[in-house]
Amino acid sequence: MSALDELTKLAGSLENEAVKEWKSQGKKVVGYFCSLVPEEILYASDIMPFRIRATGCTDTTSGDVWMARMNCSYVRSCLSYLLDDKLSFLDGVVGSNSCDDIRRMYGNLEIAAPKKFAFLDFVDVPKKVDDDSIAWYRDILVQYKKNVEKAFGVKITDAKLKKAIKVYNESRSLLKQLYELRKQDNPPITGTETMNVVLAATTIPKEKFNQLMEQLLKELKGKKGKGGYRARLMIAGGGGCDDPEWFKVIEDIGGLVVTDADCFGSRYFWKPVEIGDDLMLSLARAYMDRPSCARMSNRLDERIDFVKDMVKNYKVDGVVYQIMHYCQIWAGQVLVMRDEMKKAGVPFMQIDKEYALGSTGQLKTRVQAFLETIER
Amino acid sequence: MEEKKEYIYAGLADGLRALGDQEEKDKNMIKADGYRYFADSFNRMAEAVDNGKPIAWVSVAVPPEIFIAMDIVPFCDPVAFGLLGALEGVIEGPMDLAKEVVPDYVCSTNRLPLGLILDGSVPPPTLMVTQNNPCDSILGLDTPMAKYFGIPIFHISTPHKNSEAGYKYVANEMKKAVKFIEEQTGRKLDPDRLREVMKYSNQAHEILLNLNQLTMKVPCPFTLQESMLDYALFLHDAGRPYLVDYMKKVYQITKDRVDGKRPYPIEEKLRLVWTYLVPAYDFVGGCFDYLEENYGAVSVTFMNENLVVKPGEDISTYDGMMMSLAKKSLMMPMSRECRGTMESYLDACLTMAREYQADGVIFAGHVGCKSNWAAAKVLKDAVQEELGIPALNFEMDVIDSRVAPTQSLLPKLEDFMPLVIESRKRRGAEKKKTEGRGKPD
C-alpha cells in the first residue's frame, strides 16, 4: 500500500488502526478542540492527542437536544459523536474557547456526560495576539500541563517536552514540503488527497505520521502531476472544514484545490515552534502567532496578507471562502475579504455550508458557476 | 458650497423624546425621564458630529468613564442603535443593506450599525474600542467594520474566567486602551478628572445597588418596564452627574412606593424574570402590557438590567482606578453571563431568578446570540429543577420585530402563564404548610 493510501485510510475513520494499535499498548488518547491548543503537552506525556471531529456525521439528534439550531452543525455533530459513543476510545476531552459554540459545547458536555471521560479540561486561549496575551496564555498552559500531569500521573519534564516539540516540528516541516509540491503547474497531489494527509496528522501518533510522510514525499518525487484542471483554487474561511468529500466536489468538476487557509490545513502546521529557554512560553508564542483564525481580533491584516501571499505563491485563480453556516466570526470577515480580493483582482466566491455535505447538487452548481466565471 | 450632511442622531433624539412625552402623559414619570435622558445621548452625538468632537463607538462593558474623563463621547452602538427597534420604520432599511455584505446570522445589533453607516444615516466614528466579549458576533464584525471604514480600533482582551490575575490582565489592557485613545485623539487622560468622573459613577452604581434591593421586594415596586433603559444609560453615562440625579429620583419614587406614599405601578399577582434579553420593539407595551393586563404578571427584571457591579473600590491611584474599571467591565451584564463557563452563566441567571423571587422565568432568545442559545436548555432544566418554577424559551430578534412580531409571541406567553399560576399556587400552599408545622395547636 502506498503511503498516500495508508494515510487516506487512517484519515477515513476516527477510531483508525493507528489509534487501535496505540490503545492496545495500554496508552491513552485525549481529544481536543482546536488547533490553538498545543498537542505537544499531551504527546510529552505519552498520550496521543486527537483533534476532535465528526466527519461523516449525519445524525445530530444528541447534540440538538443540548444546543440550538443557531449553533453550528460542526459542534452539534461533535457533541453528538461524543455523547453517542462514536468517540468512546477517547480517555479525555480538552475544550477551549475557540468560539462561543465550542466553548458552550464543552459546557454542555460537562453537564450531559460528566463521567463519560476520565479527563475533562478547558484551555482559555486569548483572542488577541500581543506580548501580554502570549504571557497570559503561557500561564494558562502551565496550569493545563499541571492538570494533565495530575490526571494521568505523569511528569512532563523539559526534556520530554523538547522532544515532543521536535517531533511536531518535523511533522510541520514535512507538511510544508508537501505544500511546496502543490505550487507546481501540475501538482503531484490533489486538494482532496492533501486534506486526507492533514487529517491523518491530527488523528494518528506523530512519529508514525512522520514516517509515512517521508515515504509519501519520496513517492511523490517525480510523479506525473495532475493537469487538465479548469482552475487553481484556494479554500479560505473556516470552521469545521474537515471533509475531503467537499474538496472532491470541487475537484470532480475540474477545480484543483492547490492551497488553503484552513485550520485543518495550512494554519495547523505553517510555523514551527521556536524552542527557547522557557518551553511553555515557546509553545504559547508559536500557537498564538500562527496564521490566525478569525477569532484573533487584532490579526485581520495578517489574515488578508496570508491569503494574498498564498494566492501569489500557489498561482491561485480563485478563492473559495467557505463559512460554516452560523459561524459569526468567519462571517464578519467577508465584509473585507471580498473587497480585498476584488482590489487584488482575484475572483472570490463565498459559500455557506453545513458540516454534513448532504446533497452536493447545490454546491456543485455554485462551484461550476464560479469556475465558469474564472474561465471567462 | 458643500451641503451639510444630515445624520439621524437629532431625529432619533426627537423620537425618543416624543416617547418620553407619551410616557409622561401616561404618568410613567420614570420611563419618561429615561427616554429623555437617552435622547440626550443622541443629542450629544449630533452635537459631537457638528462640532468635530471625537466619538468612540464601544462594545458592551467598555467603561464610559475613561471617555467622559477625556471629553470624548462614548457610544455603545449595539445597544444604543438597538433601542431604535422601538421606533417604527427606522431599522429595516439599514438592516437589509447590511445583509447584502454580511450573512444575516451575524447578530442584528452588530449588523444595524454597519447598515447605518453604509446608508449614510450616521458617519463612521472617530475610533472604536471593543472588548473580546461577550460574543463572536462582536469579535467577528468589529475589526472588519473598522477596516472597511478606516476607523482606528483597539481590542481589550478579556479572560475566560474571573480571577485576581484576570483582573490585573484586563486592568493592563485598559491602560493600553487609554494610550491608544490618547494617540488617536491627541487628548490626555487626566487622572484627577477620571477620579472625579468615577466618583459620580460610584454614586450612581451605589444607588442602583440599593434600588435593586427594593426591586427584589414583593410586591415589586420598580418594574422592568420602568428600568429597561437603565442599562443603556449606565453604558453611556456612568460618570456624568445627571445619572446620579436620575438614579436618586428613581430610587426615591421606588422607596415611596415601598413606604406606601405612592401607588405601585401595578397590582402584582405573579412575578416574572427575563433571564436574557427583552424585545426592544416591545419597549412600549407589547408583551409586558399583555402580561400585566391579563395575568397581573409583573416583569421584574432582565439580564441587562441586573447590574450588580460594585463601585470602584480604590480610586486613589491611577492603577487603582484601572483595576476598578477592569473588575466592573467583567461584571457588567453580558460580559458576566455570556463570557466564561456554563457554571458562571447558570449561577448568574439562577441567582437573579432567586433573588428577584420569580414565579416563572422567560428566556427570550435573541437569534443572533449563540452562546446564550447553547445554554438555554441547561438553564431551563436548572430553573425547573433547582428553583421549582416553570421556564419558557422562545426565539426572537432583540431589535428586529420581523423575526418574531409581538403577535407571534403572545400565544407562547398564553400557553406558559397557566404553568406560572399553577406553580405559584403550589409553592404558596407548600409555604403555608411549612409555616403551619411550627405553630402550636
Q: Could you tell me the strand content of chain A as a percent range?
A: 5-15%
Uncertain segments of chain B are none
Class inferred from helices and paired strands of chain B: alpha/beta
* Radius of gyration based on Cα positions of chain B: 22 Å
What's the total helix number of chain A?
Answer: 16
The termini of chain B sit apart by 92 Å
Separate helix tally of chain B: 18
Walk me through the structure.
Chain A is α/β, with parallel strands linked by helices and 376 residues long. Chain A has 16 helices and 8 strands. In chain A, the strands form 2 sheets. A 4-stranded parallel sheet of chain A has the order 2-1-3-4, with helices on both faces. The N and C termini of chain A lie far apart (41 Å). The mean pLDDT of chain A is 96. Chain B is of the alpha/beta class and 441 residues long. Chain B is built from 18 helices and 8 strands. In chain B, helix 1 (9-25) packs antiparallel against helix 2. Chain B is globular and about 70 Å long. The mean pLDDT of chain B is 94. The interface between A and B is large, with 51 and 49 residues.
